[in-house]
Amino acid sequence: MRVSDGEGRSVTSYAYKASLIGSAHRFELTEEGLSWHVAGRSGVWRYDEISAIRLSFRPVSMQQHRFRADVSHAKGGRIAILSTSWQTAALMAPQDNGFRALIVELHARMAKAGSRAELTAGLGTKTYAAVLAFLALLAVAMAGLLIRALMIGEFAGVLFILGFAALFAWQVGGFVRRNQPRSYGFDRLPAGLLP
Hints:
The protein is α+β, with helices and mostly antiparallel strands. It has three helices and twelve strands. The longest helix is centred in the last third of the chain and has 27 residues, at 125-151. The model has no long low-confidence stretch (mean pLDDT 88).
């Protein structure tokens, strides 16, 4: 959300609840830098002091369309910014427009400040390799079950395995495709990792 700070300067703000218990995590992009209030702590990080940003797609059972930005400071410290907010025990609401506005504006202000931050997208390379290895093992196991079901003539089992494999590929395929490790620039944010 873009508002005026009373002195005519534009301030972009965003807030979300990371859990049902506790206060909201609040962020503002001010002239001084990224102002944050998280779990009773607060601070202002100048845009040129932000050392890294990692954007990723992180669905959870309550919200299949959730994005995350991990922002790191040059002197240590990291804050996570999520695109969803807990509303009730059974409802996690997306906040796509506010999250997108904050992330796009943060990158623009960092570029204007001459930041040399490391901008990465997706999972870390080791984590991504582990995910691919697990999926390869799962594919081999499913192929074995499919061959076995065909050999014994269990066609209901064949249909079940094919249906499960299609659903799994649809659900997990998007996660794997979006979270491929890569670098990006201030002027080319990864569209698949922003709502």
